[in-house]
Design a protein that fits this description.
The complex is a heterodimer. Chain A is an alpha/beta fold. Chain A is built from 13 helices and 18 strands. Classes of the chains: A alpha/beta, B alpha/beta. At the A-B interface, helix 6 of A face helix 4 of B.
Chain lengths: 423, 311
């Protein structure tokens, strides 16, 4: 089946393109851009007033299968991704059992193929069982199809283990992802340490916890030369460390989550546990710096850290609630509203953050609409207003703090390998 | 004028008028406790559940006595006897209690925010009897009442709160209350026991006892909450007491008319010299008596009865 997307504005930073153009897709590949006359047999999509961009990639998703299918499954996670405009996701290894061997990697990829919606690229564990002690069989997992290694949601505590992991990952030229938050400095806290934690009487997580790991990682990246990806930085100071490292040509990249530039710790009113997340929500100054970092290019990508949690895990005290927010079905609208409408980011930069750069970091053979490229496409209507309605989410879990928010800009269609998987 | 809210979740949301109303009502109730027959029929037929997830002797008994003196039925529901030991979730417990139709639930829990959570799941009025490191509003109110037994007004007084500020809900509630009432509030502890940006509560923060105590009218000593500390914040009890323990010598820096309060239970010799506990400055036992009066006032005001109190 041939698909023609007409009258949209194509934005593709990989070929420095932003223009009104049609695009034709055939047998899963992009076959042509320009002014194209449709044939009768073609399926036609009218994208007037919309942006047509290379498929968005969420580089940080917890899919919970195998093991925690009560929170999310590969099917519901894929549906949520599709509904959120993502054509590819990188899933973290914290399934049960952990994705620390090729059998689990195989299982995830097989299940993903059977579901057949979005592309799922697993990240394998850095250490067996995510315990931070022994290296997992990275080579076997690479053969099976992992695109990176990570111990997320845990930091790798032991500096020497992390160093060896960085060295070892170089064999396969894959990035090492770190969840930065040194556990002793985090001191079993539940939210950002500051005026708000003091007022609420909640144990705080020091900003130093994130920074300590980030500086350690930058040092290790420098001495090992590994490509290191800091998953979701959240503080002003973290950003400044990354900026310094990049100025010294250290191979470090970083992502941020939408919730870290749309919410602050002051939003934790009435101990609402949907606002509990790790790294914790920070302050207004941090939000401001993150938006600056997005605009000036210090931040390479935006990823959701989609972390489904059941009601049981959230409907308890703030202390006991499991951290995490789901994010795939709100990310694009949040970014469009907060970054493009309010902060003046260009749509082109947003495509870089969600497609071009994630593809470059994780080498996924996506992120472009060049002729011959795999036809993963996201179509966004910049003027459509949405009201977030968690009850309509595809995700199996509903732990989202944005319910009821009114946002401008919305995904209208998601296309994977030339097939419309969401509209 | 009644209280604005249906619950007493903390000092934070109380207005100065409400605070003064509670204190004024407490003074009326103090008289009842000194009568030979210490009971009025005001809250007859009302039921109050004391839901205590943390061990407590004085606060729980104080609430129980307060309820009984007002003729309410007080039911104690403490953690060791409850279903929570059997794994029932807090929400389920609360939903069950809701169907017993209590008029009020007095709750203490080791996690901040539990009273707020209850207030959303229950029709009953909720009184916070201490939630984690957050608030303990009736303690602050009884402390203010006690200070007012000795001082004409709180406005303009220098009050020093000393000890484990970080883990103390008493410190937070007291700082806010005394600040609202116009006192100059100082907190003093080693930096390891002062939470970040505490000065935003309106307190002056110092690490030096002399600065905190100099010219103080009232000194509130806090219990060292070793059970809440997940790490070591001071090298030893001996060193802590030498630096931050309240001794007779250090009390000389305060005004000669100063009073010493402590919410109890006291770690004698950790935060305070045993002799001071029983000495001339101490008003610690008056605090206990005032606790009953304040809790009677809060029960009465929240249950919003229009009947005569019979004072």
């Amino acid at each position: 089946m041939t698909l023609l997307i007409r009258n949209g504005t194509i934005i593709d930073p990989s070929q420095k393109l932003k223009k009104k153009s049609d695009i034709v897709v055939d047998r899963g590949k992009v076959v042509g851009l320009g002014k194209i006359k449709p044939k009768k047999s073609w399926q036609i999509v009218d994208a007037s007033g919309c942006f047509v961009v290379p498929g968005f990639i969420d580089t940080h998703v917890h899919l919970c299968e195998p093991g925690r299918e009560d929170k999310e499954t590969i099917l519901t996670g894929s549906e949520a991704a599709a509904a959120g405009g993502f054509t590819s996701i990188v899933c973290m290894p914290d399934s049960e059992p952990v994705n620390d061997n090729e059998a689990i990697t195989d299982f995830i990829l097989q299940r993903a193929r059977r579901v057949g919606l979005v592309n799922i690229f697993p990240a394998g564990a850095i250490t067996k069982g995510l315990l931070g002690e022994e290296l997992a069989e990275v080579g076997e997992m690479v053969k099976a199809g992992i695109v990176a290694i990570a111990d997320d949601p845990n930091p790798v505590e032991n500096n020497q283990v992390m160093r060896r992991a960085c060295e070892y990952a170089k064999t396969f030229d894959i990035p090492v992802i770190d969840h930065c938050g040194e556990l002793r400095l985090a001191a079993q806290g539940h939210m950002n340490e500051g005026a708000v934690s003091t007022r609420l009487g909640l144990r705080g997580i020091s900003r130093a916890a994130e920074e300590a790991d980030i500086t350690r990682d930058i040092i290790l990246s420098r001495i090992t030369g590994v490509r290191l990806h800091l998953a979701h930085i959240s503080t002003q100071e973290s950003l400044s460390w990354v900026r310094q490292a990049k100025n010294q040509d250290i191979q470090v990249t970083c992502g941020v989550t939408p919730h870290h530039f749309t919410l602050t710790d002051s939003d934790i009113h009435d101990y609402h546990t949907d606002f509990k997340v790790d790294p914790p929500l920070r302050t207004q100054e941090d939000v401001k710096s993150i938006v600056e970092g997005i605009i000036d290019g210090t931040i390479d990508c935006i990823a959701t850290d989609h972390s489904p949690q059941t009601r049981l895990e959230k409907e308890t005290t703030f202390d006991e609630a499991v951290p995490g927010m789901i994010g795939m079905e709100t990310a694009i609208s949040l970014c469009w509203d907060f970054l493009i409408c309010r902060a003046g980011l260009s749509p082109t930069r947003l495509v870089e953050l969600f497609s071009t750069n994630p593809n470059r970091i994780f080498q996924l053979d996506r992120g472009t609409l060049k002729e011959g490229a795999i036809a993963d496409i996201t179509i966004i209507d910049p003027d459509r207003e949405v009201i977030v309605d968690v009850s309509k989410f595809k995700s199996k879990s509903k732990n989202c703090p944005f319910d009821g928010w009114k946002l401008r800009g919305s995904v209208v269609m998601t296309i994977v390998k030339g097939r419309i998987i969401y509209q | 004028m009644p209280l604005v809210g249906k619950h007493l979740l903390g000092i934070e949301n109380l207005s100065l008028d409400e605070i003064e109303l509670i204190l004024k009502t407490s003074r009326s109730f103090k008289e009842i406790s000194s009568r030979p027959i210490k009971k009025v029929p005001t809250l007859r037929g009302r039921s109050v559940i004391n839901l205590f997830y943390e061990p407590s002797t004085r606060t729980r008994s104080s609430f129980e006595i307060a309820a009984k003196r007002l003729s309410a039925d007080a039911i104690n529901f403490s953690v060791s006897q409850s279903s929570s030991a059997k794994g029932e979730s807090l929400i389920d417990t609360v939903k069950n209690l809701q169907f017993m139709n209590p008029d009020m639930i007095v709750v203490r829990h080791s996690a901040a925010g539990v009273p707020h959570m209850l207030s959303k799941h229950c029709d009953a009025s909720i009184i916070n009897a201490g939630d984690g490191m957050h608030e303990h509003p009736t303690q602050a109110l009884l402390d203010a009442l006690t200070i007012l037994d000795y001082k004409k007004q709180i406005k303009g007084l220098k009050v020093a709160i000393i000890g484990d500020i970080a883990h103390s809900r008493v410190a937070r509630s007291n700082t806010m209350l005394l600040n609202k009432m116009g006192a100059e509030v100082w907190v003093c502890a080693p930096p390891t026991l002062i939470p970040m940006r505490y000065e935003e509560y309106g307190a002056k923060v110092t690490y030096k006892m002399k600065e905190a105590l100099r010219g103080a009218d009232a000194v509130i000593m806090l219990r060292m909450q070793r059970e809440r500390q997940k790490e070591v914040s001071y090298p030893s009890v001996k060193e802590y007491f030498a630096l931050y323990g309240l001794s007779k010598e250090k009390m000389k820096w305060a005004k000669s008319t100063a009073i010493v309060l402590h919410p109890g239970p006291i770690n004698r010799g950790v935060e305070i010299d045993p002799e001071l506990v029983d000495g001339e400055y101490s008003v610690i036992l008056e605090q206990v008596a005032n606790g009953v009066a304040v809790r009677m006032a809060v029960l009465y005001l929240l249950l919003g009865t229009s009947e005569e109190i019979g004072l």
